[in-house]
C-alpha cells in the first residue's frame, strides 16, 4: 500500500531536514515543474488528477486554481495561503503532516504558487500547534537558504515569499474568507461571495486558500502524474486520504489509506474495534459539522461521493465515534455549545439560533425538556440550514443535530418522557 | 506606556505587512507576551501605533479566544472541552481541577499561579482528554497525573 504523504513521517523522530528531504526525492517536483512545465500544464495536471480539497468542501483543486486571473496585466501581488487552522472538533490530521514533514507542505505551496502565479504565500497556523510552528519556521528558513524560496527560484525568474502567521484562536478562521480577514488583522468574519477570493482575496488581490493535506498531495502528483494519483484510490475520488478515528475505540489515531476504505475497516481494523464493553452507535464521519452515520452505513466507502450519497459529508475524514454508553443528547449538546460559542455573531439566525438550540438541548439532557422542544429543534434544522445564514457555520452545526433527531429520536423523547437522562 | 522593546517589536511587525492595521493581531501578541494580558492602557497605546481607534482594536482583541483582556495567572490552563475530549471524560478532569485549585473557569488562583479556561478542540483527539498549560500540551490526561502536571508549572 502506497503512503506518499506519510512515508517519511515518524512521529517519534524530528521531521526531515532539507537535506534529508532532498535525499528522499524532496523538491524534485519543484525542479520538474519550474524547469519543465508551464503553470497552465500544472493546473491541468492537478485538475486531471481529480484532487479534491481535503479541508472538507471537496472542490476540485485544479478547477479552483483555474479561476485565478493569469497573464501580465492582472492585479499583483497574488497570494497563496495554506489553511493550517485545523479547528474542526475531532480533527487532527493536518497536525500529523505539519509536525511530521513541513518541507512537504512548503514544496506543495511552491507548486501551487507557481501554478497560479502567486508572489507571496502564508501558512495560516492555529496557535495551539507549537511544535508545528517551530518546524515550519526552520523549514522555511532552510528553503530560503537553498534557493527554493525568494527571488528567481532555480534561475527561472519565478519568485516567492513565504511567511508563517499564527492565529489567536477562533473557529471562523478556517472559513477561507474569514481567514483572509484575520490575515489582514480584522475580526475573522466571513465575506460575501462573489467576489470569490480567486479574483479578490487578500488585500483585494487574487488569492487561493488550500488545505494543508491538499497542498501536501501536490509534489506527488507532479512527480508521478494524474493517473498514478487516481490509481491510489479504491473509488472515483482520487488519491490517498488521512483518516482518523477518535472516541471509545482500542487504538484511536490517524492513518494515510487509499481513498474509499470503509467506515467498518477504519473502526474495526485500523482503530482496533470498540473498547471492551462498548458498542458502536454512530459516527460523525468528518468532524463536528457532519451528519451522523449509523450501523447500516458501516460498509460505506469513505470518499466524498459515497458519504454524500449516504446522507452525510466526508468533511475532514476524521471520524468521531458515538458509543452505546454515551448519551446522544449530551453529545449533540457539546457540539452545539461549540458552534454557539464560535459563531461570529454577524448574522441573526446563527447568533440567536445556536444558543437557543444549545439551551434546549441542555434542558432535555437535564430531564427538564418538554415535548414541544422537539419541534423547536426540528425547525432550527430548517431555519439554520443552507441558504438562511451568511456562511456555512450554522448549516454545518445543524448537520449532526438533524441526523441525531433522525437516528436517535427515541433517545431524545425518552429524556423528555422520563424527565431524566437514561445514561446518568 | 509600552516599553521600548515592545515598541520595537511592534514596529518590526508593522514593517512586514502592507498596511499598519494589518499588524494588529501580531501587535496584541507582542503586548501579551510581555505582560501576560492586554490592559486598556496598553490597548490604547498599541492602537495609536497602528493608526486605529482603541475601540476598533478592542473589537479585534475581543474577537479572538486567546487575547486576554483581563489579568491572568503566571500559567494558563487551557482545558479542551470539545467533543472527543467530552466523550473521553474531560468533565472529570475539569471537576478535579476546579476542586483542587478552588477556582472556576475564568478565575485565577489567589497566589496568581494558575488561570483555568475552557478551550475548543486542541487537535489531538486520538489522545483525549487533552489540555495545554502555556505552550505545553498534555495528552491522555488522567486525574492521577494532574498533580504531577501542575507541579511542573510553579
CATH topology description of the largest domain in chain A: Rossmann fold
Distance between the termini of chain B: 29 Å
CATH topology name of the largest domain in chain B: Glutaredoxin
- Unreliable segments of 5+ consecutive residues of chain B: none
User: What proportion of the residues of chain B form beta strands (DSSP E)?
Assistant: 5-15%
CATH superfamily of the largest domain in chain B: Glutaredoxin
* Overall average pLDDT of chain A: 97
CATH class category of the largest domain in chain B: Alpha Beta
Major β-sheet strand ordering of chain B: 2-1-3-4
CATH superfamily descriptor of the largest domain in chain A = NADH-ubiquinone oxidoreductase 51kDa subunit
Based on Cα principal axes, name the global outline of chain A: globular
Give the quaternary arrangement of the chains: heterodimer
The CATH class of the largest domain in chain A, by name, is Alpha Beta
Largest two-chain interface: A-B, 55 and 39 residues
Describe the sheet with the most strands of chain A: 4 strands, parallel
- Second-tier CATH architecture of the largest domain in chain B: 3-Layer(aba) Sandwich
Helix content percent band of chain B: 40-55%
The sequence of SSEs of chain A as H and E is HHHHEHHEHEHEHHEEHEHEHHHHH
Q: In what range is the share of β-strand residues of chain A?
A: 5-15%
Query: What's the CATH architecture name of the largest domain in chain A?
Result: 3-Layer(aba) Sandwich
Order of the strands making up the biggest sheet of chain A: 3-2-1-4
